[in-house]
């Protein structure tokens, strides 16, 4: 199963005896699934069906869009109704204005079509229910194209994230290679400083110095943090390989990796390790930003 991005766009159409239906969908990043698709007023009863259809295919992201219906000529004619009260009020007002302004009275029946709300199109429950298969077909086509784009974006994301994991793994390896020598370097540096201050004495076997080095080695030990970090990196690599809906799991692992890297940085007390910790933090932040796009 491929990795899915949360960014995409898709359109779909379906036509039948009654009407032509057009659906347009787009999606962007969002921690949860948030669906906001506009429907014509007369299709308000379809809102829950549309929501369920989208929720069955997507799990994260803000999905927006619009469903448009163009009735066939025959269906439109059968559902036409003139609001006589509104028509009379509009015609009376227009004729009064024409008379006051000295304009000719050239109103024709066709002018009613241009008056807002005068001619309305109403369809019974039977016609609306017969429209659902067209809405469903167009919606499924739009979702299929949306998912295809999200998969394409997801493939690019996966490649980028895998590259960043390799960089983090390399830095973790370099930290692991450097860590065993940190206590020895501290001991050598401490001996030199004491020797410079108090020359002529062999401090190598001094109990106080050995105790100080032991305490330092214990405080600077990052074995547990390195093991956990490497485990998180392996889990993240496995999720990327498996694909599917992995965004929340990857987001959790990013937080855990950040915690281990920060602890390594605070405990290691070594310039070379600190340099790699800084590079690791920067790379992990770029990884985190990309994970925000993963479904």
Please give a handful of descriptors for the protein shown:
two-stranded antiparallel ribbon; 9 helices; alpha+beta; 295 residues; 14% strand
Write the layout of secondary structure elements.
Layout: E1 8-15, E2 19-28, E3 33-38, H1 47-55, E4 61-71, H2 73-78, E5 80-82, H3 84-101, E6 119-121, H4 125-178, H5 182-197, H6 207-220, H7 223-242, H8 247-268, H9 271-291
Parallel strand pairs: 3-4
Antiparallel strand pairs: 1-2, 2-4, 5-6
Description:
By secondary structure, the chain is of the alpha+beta class. Among the domains are: 80-121, no CATH class; 154-291, no CATH class. Helix content is 61%, strand content 14%. The chain is built from nine helices and six strands. It has helices at 47-55, 73-78, 84-101, 125-178, 182-197, 207-220, 223-242, 247-268, 271-291, and strands at residues 8-15, 19-28, 33-38, 61-71, 80-82, 119-121. The strands form two sheets. Strands 1-2-4-3 form a four-stranded mixed beta sheet. Helix 1 (47-55) links the parallel strand 3 (33-38) and strand 4. The protein is elongated. The two termini are 13 Å apart. The mean pLDDT is 83.
């Amino acid at each position: 199963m491929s990795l899915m991005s949360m960014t995409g766009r898709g359109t779909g159409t379906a036509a039948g005896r009654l009407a032509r239906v057009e659906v347009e969908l787009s999606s962007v990043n969002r921690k949860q699934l948030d669906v906001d698709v506009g429907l014509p007023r007369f299709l308000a009863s379809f809102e829950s069906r549309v929501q369920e259809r989208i929720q069955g295919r997507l799990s994260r992201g803000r999905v927006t869009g619009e469903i448009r219906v163009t009735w066939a000529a025959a269906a439109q004619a059968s559902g036409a109704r003139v609001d006589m009260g509104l028509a009379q009020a509009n015609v009376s007002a227009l004729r009064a204005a024409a008379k006051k302004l000295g304009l000719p009275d050239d109103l024709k029946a066709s002018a009613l079509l241009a008056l807002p709300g005068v001619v309305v199109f109403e369809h019974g429950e039977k016609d609306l229910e017969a429209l659902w298969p067209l809405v469903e077909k167009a919606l499924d086509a739009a979702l299929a194209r949306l998912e295809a784009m999200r998969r394409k974006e997801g493939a690019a994301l996966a490649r980028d994230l895998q590259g960043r994991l390799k960089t983090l793994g390399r830095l973790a390896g370099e930290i692991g290679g450097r860590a065993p020598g940190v206590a020895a370097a501290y001991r050598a540096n401490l001996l030199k400083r004491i020797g410079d201050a108090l020359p002529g004495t062999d401090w190598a076997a001094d109990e106080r110095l050995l105790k100080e080095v032991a305490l330092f080695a214990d405080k600077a030990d990052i074995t547990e943090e390195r093991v956990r970090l490497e485990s998180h990196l392996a889990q993240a690599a496995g999720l990327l390989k498996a694909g599917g809906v992995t965004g929340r799991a990857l987001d959790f692992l990013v937080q855990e990796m950040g915690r281990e890297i920060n602890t390594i940085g605070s405990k290691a007390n070594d310039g070379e390790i600190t340099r790699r910790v800084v590079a690791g933090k920067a790379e992990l932040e770029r990884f985190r930003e990309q994970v925000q796009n993963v479904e």
